[in-house]
Amino acid sequence: MRLLVVLAAAGSTAATSSTATESTQQAIGYPTLFLLVLIGALVPVVPTGALVSSAAVVAYHQTAPFALALVFVTASLAAFLGDAALYWLGRRGLRSKNGSRWLAAIRARAPEQRLSQAQSKLAGHGVAVLVLSRLVPAGRIPVMLACLLAEWPLRRFARGNVAACLAWAVTYQVIGILGGSLFPEPWEGVVAAVGLTVAISVAPSVWRRVRSAA
After folding, report:
1. What's the pLDDT score for residue 102?
2. Are residues 49 and 134 in contact, defined by beta-carbon separation less than 8 angstroms?
3. Chain centre distance of CA 170
């Protein structure tokens, strides 16, 4: 009887410790995820897709309710606000006689060939191209610049970008969930999710090089 009481107490202590650890992870993790995705939307050098997938892996292994839903809300909201801020800064640069460093940064990341393709697709398909642009590696910036040059108002861009950010967050969260479900340890799922997102991001450029070499 005494042994059962000791085991029950140990189990309760472990559960309390696990809950405290998860609470600490959430208190630090969600604001950090929000900030990094927001920065990644403004300065497209942060691998935001890998961040979302990694956060989804950790959330998948947690016992807290709505952990995955919070990752989804945090990532999609941060991406939307970052895109909206960058688009607003780009519009200011277009109206300025001297442009702006933000507009110059957007132009620098949109090669002429990809910009031309984005403009052609945007003219033919409108908002659908904006939605898909976040799912295509390196597709977001050329389409955003195409929207700027087409003089889309911020409100029109924002309406289309809502669906784009939601679809983007779902896609990379699913990648994280798959990684988390395949491995018993969170770190293993994180490695798998990051590897998959990196492979997805470099695949188009590798394919273009193979085609040009052939």
Report:
1. 81
2. no
3. 9
Q: Is 112 exposed, middle or buried (0-12, 13-18, 19+ CB in 10 A)?
A: exposed
Contacts 24+ apart (CB under 8 A), 197-205: 197/47, 197/49, 197/50, 197/53, 197/172, 198/47, 198/50, 200/49, 200/137, 201/47, 201/49, 201/137, 201/138, 202/137, 203/137, 204/136, 204/137, 204/138, 205/137, 205/138
The label of the residue with tokens 């801020």 reads: 85
Residues of the chain with confidence (pLDDT) below 50? 1-18, 20
**Residue 110, Ramachandran bin (φ over 0: left; ψ between -120 and 50: alpha; else beta):** beta
Residue partners of 214: CB distance under 8 A and separation at least 6: none
Beta strands in 159-206 (DSSP E): none
In terms of Cα–Cα distance, which of 166, 179, 171 is closest to 54?
179
What's this model's pTM, rounded to 2 decimal places?
A: 0.79
